[in-house]
C-alpha cells in the first residue's frame, strides 16, 4: 500500500522518469483535459492532501510548531467553513481576508526581527487584498493555478540533497511547471487539442463552460485561452499528484519519519489508508452529487492549500536556518 524505502536517488535516474511522466501527462491533458481534471481529482485529490500534509509537517517541523501553527490552524479552519457555504454573499470575501491574514501571520513570524521589511510586506499584502476583494473571481482563478506551481519550490528545496546533477534536476522541474504551460498558453499545442470539454465527463461536472470557468479569468472565457487554461490545469494537476503521491513518499523518507514521530497514529501505511478511505468516500459523493462533492473537497483541501504558503513565506523571510540540512 505505502511506498517501500528507496535507495538514495540521483538526478541521472530521476530526470528520465520525470521526462516520461511529463510527456504522458501532456498528451493526456491535451487530448482529454476535462476527463483528466475530473477523474484526477476524484482518484487522487484526498490522497495527495494527506501525503502533502505529511511531508510539509515533517520536513518543516521547526517552522510549523507552537503558537504559529495554532494560529494558522485557526485561520485555515475559518477558510474551510467559508468554503462549506460558498453560496452565501460573505463567504468569498471572508475567505480572501482570512487567506491574507494567513500570509500576514507568516510575514510577522519570519520578519518580526526586521520591522522595515515586515511593514513593507504588510503594505504589499494590504494592496493585494484590496485588489482581490475588488476582483474576487480573478483571485480564485489565480489561486487555483498558483497551487499547482508551488511544488516547484518544494522540489527545488529537496534538490539540495543531490550531490551531482542538481541544476539539471531543477531545470527539469522548471520545464514542467513553467515552460510547458507557457507553450500551451501560446497555442503551440493547439493542433493536438481534444474536444472532451463538451463530452460526458464535462457534462457530469456541470458542463464544459462551467468547468473552464473555474480555471479561466472571466474576461477570457470566450477566447481560445479558456480551453488552453483548462489544459494547463489538467497537466499541472497531474504532475502535482505525481510529486505528492509518488515522488515525495518515495524520495523524502526522512520527512515522513519526522512526521510519524509527531503523529504516531498515522505511522506506516495508516496515512495511505486514511487517504484512500477519503478517496473512496469522495468518489461516492461525486457520483451522487458532484457539486456537493466538489464543495466538500474544496473545504477539506483548505488545509494543504493554505498551509504551504506560510511555509514558503516564512522560509523566504529568513527562517530557513531553522531546518538546517536535515533532509
What are the main properties of this structure?
327 residues; globular; mainly alpha; disordered N terminus; 15 helices; single chain
Q: What would you note in describing this structure?
A:
- Helix content is 75%, strand content 0%.
- The protein has 327 residues and is mostly helical.
- It has one domain (11-322).
- The model is unreliable at 1-7 (pLDDT under 50).
Q: Give the DSSP E fraction (strand runs of 2 or more residues).
A: under 5%
How many strands? 0
**Rg on CA atoms, Å:** 20 Å
Give the H and E element order.
HHHHHHHHHHHHHHH
Q: How many structural domains are formed by the residues?
A: 1
Shape: globular
The CA-CA distance between the termini, in Å, is 24 Å
Helix content: over 70%
Outline the low-pLDDT stretches: 1-7
Q: Can you count the helices? A: 15
Mean pLDDT over the residues: 90
Class per helix and strand makeup: mainly alpha
Give the biggest sheet. Answer: none
Describe the structure in brief.
With 327 residues, the chain is mostly helical. It has helices at 11-31, 33-59, 66-84, 91-111, 115-134, 136-149, 151-158, 166-185, 200-204, 208-213, 225-251, 253-262, 270-288, 290-300, 302-319.
